Amino acid sequence: MGIAAEALKDFKGFSLKKLPVEEPLSPGHRACQGCGEVLALRLIMKAIGSNVVVCSATGCMEIITSPYPQTAWRVPWLHVAFENAAAVVSGVEAAYKAMNRKGIIDSPDTVFFAYGGDGGTMDIGLQALSGAMERGHNFVYACLDNEAYMNTGIQRSSGTPYGAMTTTSPPGKKSIGQSTQKKNLPAIAVAHAIPYVATASPAFPVDLMNKAKKAAMIPGPAYLHVYSVCPTGWRHAADQTIQVAKLAVDSKVFPLYEVIDGEYKLSRKVAKPKPVADYLKAQRRFRHLTESEVAKIQAKVDADWDTLVKRCGAEEAPAPAKEDE
Amino acid sequence: MSKRVGMEVSIAAAEVVGMTNVDVIAAYPITPQTHIVEHLSELVADGQLDAEFVPVESEHSAMSTCVGSSAAGARTFTSTSSQGYALMSEICYIAAALRLPIVMAVANRAISGPINIWNDHADMMMSRDTGWVQTVAENGQEVIDLLLHAFRVAEDHRVLLPTIVNLDGFTLSHMIEPMFLPEQAEVDRYLPPYVPKLRLDPAKPITMGPVGMPDVYTEARKAQDEALKASKPVILEAWKEFADQFGRQYHPVETYQTEGAEHLLLTMGSISETAMTAVDAMRAAGKKVGLARIRLWRPFPADELLAAVRGAKTLSVIDRAPAFSGGCGPVCCEVKSMLFDGGCSPYVWNYLAGLGGRDVTVEDFADMVAKTSACADRGEPMGYEFLNARE
């Protein structure tokens, strides 16, 4: 049995009737209306609980939760810079390890959690994250992926999907918008042979919380790639956040899966996939795309899904959690 | 009782850091700092030091890991040089702003380009305004003494600032020198266990590193300036106690033959000992020459330096880094500013010397004094030059 499987053998999932009451990330922060990222972060914090040290990359979640002298954090929280959340959490974890061993503190069950956006994780923070995963620190890292540098005003990142309009990938006579394909960071995390990697979405809150809890329970590095809808940057109404997030999963654009001890496992089958066009049409960042471009994106989504299903082997995905329906 | 040993300075530095019972060391290899952290990793591997050695993937992550570690309440050490120092400098500013008592040994090395692994002070000058306490060693004994002092000062609740000990790359880091290495009991007597004032603890949550809007940013920066200035009495107190215990007394500005001196040299670091030899020779030849050496680089010891140079007719300031087109090197700029504020106006000539590992000899110091003196006599405008630079 692998490290993750061993740690999860007594795992019991959350249910909607018995969700933790605590809110380590409290209300009253300054996120935009309809922010899917802060919703995801709030759910992750509920799942991990209060015996935690949180390390934040610079970004929306840092700005909106910590305008001095206010703070939305009810747990210890440290922000240092943009590209180094994984290195900072490495230091916190190393300090706890040393101080626990030397009898300076007695805090063996504290969870070490770091998060960053797609820019802070997939671009500028990739080296620090790779280093921390390779060294095997006991930490949870969440990439809260809203598919562009939203905090600085919607610039493209390596997490921006093909065809999307951003302020540095504008469509024009000679441009389709973002000209490159989205970087597959979960696969990069898997390549580090860490015990746990998962994708999750706030539109499926119980699944998201279960994955965050599992990530916290497993010794060693755990990586969560969390779909984080951004109405401001994606150009849709603030009340459409959950709809868009559901469409992403139901059109196979953002598949939900886990990789436990290197074994891929689909979290959610998509029996009757919605057309990718439905997902694209829901957001004005894609409105310049022609039918032929939409067809190309559909083909890529289908091919990626097939690759993922093959990685998952013959094993059938479990039925979706009832609570998330 | 300290025992006298012959040892490579980097190894001795690591031995002393080990004796502080440091909890976390995060480091990345860069010449000429490497021997320090190599030996620390050996101490950890052999079980002589109970610490987490975090072999990070860059200096940026080294300082980031140190920030996380220190914020969690652990005694924390790292070491770097040159390009590595440049890479981590973003986080050095933040470490000071967060008031984290990290201790770092910097084996000073030139900054690229061209790439050059040898000693000068460009890295020290580049990171002048990160807000750290900074001291400068002239020999191996001072490296280990100043390292102990650094932990003592940094962790004092009246200071709580990260602290650097600067030691010249190769000319100190790789030398085998005779040194008095302290016993463990002596270290324990001088350096109490680290008690953090605040730490990241789920039992008592704090928010560290929040956003500072325009209405508080100025005050935050002012508070940091005041904190660095307020560290000085503690630095002096810790040196006094060091002298009481170990018999070696350090000062913010060290002087040599300054009594009655008309012509003063001003140096930092290991070339100071060469300068002393030069001063001896010049004094023997009847010239009224003395030497002032900056030991405490930050907080800048303006009062002590002014007292040391007041009365001199000429000042030959040696900078070991250029400040391109700035009118003079970085040390000289500060010295001139201090002289102006202090109403003191000797003739100042600035020599950019010992760059990228070039030796500065006894004869060079004699030439510098002679040239400055001659320029002063001729009433030439003050200025700077790259010493012995070929056209």
Please characterize this protein's 3D structure.
The complex is a heterodimer of chains A (325) and B (391). Chain A is α/β, with parallel strands linked by helices and 325 residues long. Helices cover 36% and strands 14% of the residues of chain A. An eight-stranded mixed β-sheet of chain A has the order 2-1-3-4-8-7-9-10, sandwiched between helices. In chain A, strands 5-6 form a two-stranded antiparallel ribbon. By secondary structure, chain B is α/β, with parallel strands linked by helices. Chain B folds into two domains: 244 residues, Thiamin diphosphate (ThDP)-binding fold, Pyr/PP domains (Rossmann fold, 3-Layer(aba) Sandwich); 134 residues, Rossmann fold. In chain B, the strands form three sheets. Chain B has a seven-stranded mixed β-sheet, with helices on both faces. Chain B has a six-stranded mixed β-sheet with strand order 10-12-11-14-15-16, with helices on both faces. In chain B, strands 1-8 form a two-stranded antiparallel ribbon. The model of chain B has no long low-confidence stretch (mean pLDDT 97). Classes of the chains: A alpha/beta (325), B alpha/beta (391). At the A-B interface, β1, β2, α4 and α6 of A face α3, α4 and β9 of B. β2 of chain A pairs parallel with β9 of chain B.
Task: Write a brief caption for the model.
With 325 residues, chain A is α/β, with parallel strands linked by helices. Chain A is built from twelve helices and ten strands. The radius of gyration of chain A is 19 Å and the shape is globular.
Estimated radius of gyration of chain A: 19 Å
Mean pLDDT of chain B: 97
Across the major sheet of chain A, the strand order is 2-1-3-4-8-7-9-10
Q: Could you please say which CATH topology of the largest domain in chain B applies here?
A: Rossmann fold
Helix vs. strand class of chain A: alpha/beta
Shape annotation of chain B: globular
